[in-house]
């Protein structure tokens, strides 16, 4: 099964390891290639997708900056992809291209695997790009009492708030001036900005604002222990690292790529094992 990832700055991605590992665990010989626009120019997502389809690929994952283009390119889309308006998984079927958003489903699975039946409560979400949108809708589906959005582009956060409200989820926006007072009144703090990534080091909010009563999620997983995650652990806050999302979105994508229902079931059954593996490898947790 030929798979790949299309995006920018992805050469350090762990996705090839995850999908090849899942292939071995499920008995499906799998290859997974990286198509990085920073390494070799990509004219458009559509042109790259045509190339990989012609080369016999079963499907691809899609990341920044093409997640919204991905759902528009598809002939069919899952509920999550339609709701979020973005896709990170494209499957090449006989009747066209199918788009899914496994960031949406993977966040929900990862939240439950990490934080159990804890209620999300009132959540501050920083960053309303592709993964931020998926996580915001995931929080709504998990029953968050309110999702409060902040983005460097206020128009983006306001638009997402309206989209969430249109689906029946409580949502609002704040400005950076309101950050400190908002954090204190929130149960969950979520980072979906690039801040904390090895190429964009730092913490998305002042570390001293993080308290023991918070639960924290950082979508960044390279490095696995970001400054935000470290700050949360230092004060005893509950933490869901980006490793959770990485694993569960990957498992959900692999299941979409599988053509055999029994193989999908086998992949699902390996999720816990894989999660334990990457917690050891990336987080150093045993």
Automatic annotation (TrEMBL):
Top EC group: oxidoreductase
Membrane-spanning parts: none
Database matches in InterPro entries: AlaDH/PNT_NAD(H)-bd, Aminoacid_DH-like_N_sf, NAD(P)-bd_dom_sf, Shikimate_DH-bd_N, Shikimate_DH_fam
Entry's Gene Ontology cellular component terms: cytosol
Gene Ontology annotations of biological process type: aromatic amino acid family biosynthetic process; chorismate biosynthetic process; shikimate metabolic process
Cross-referenced SUPFAM superfamilies: Aminoacid dehydrogenase-like, N-terminal domain, NAD(P)-binding Rossmann-fold domains
Pathway entry: Metabolic intermediate biosynthesis; chorismate biosynthesis; chorismate from D-erythrose 4-phosphate and phosphoenolpyruvate: step 4/7
Annotated Alanine dehydrogenase/pyridine nucleotide transhydrogenase NAD(H)-binding domain residues: 119-201
Domain Shikimate dehydrogenase substrate binding N-terminal: 5-90
EC number, as in UniProt: 1.1.1.25
Pfam families given in the database record: AlaDh_PNT_C, Shikimate_dh_N
GO molecular function ontology, one term from the record: shikimate 3-dehydrogenase (NADP+) activity
Keywords: Amino-acid biosynthesis, Aromatic amino acid biosynthesis, NADP, Oxidoreductase
CDD domains: NAD_bind_Shikimate_DH (cd01065)
Protein's name according to its UniProt entry: Shikimate dehydrogenase
Species name: Billgrantia tianxiuensis
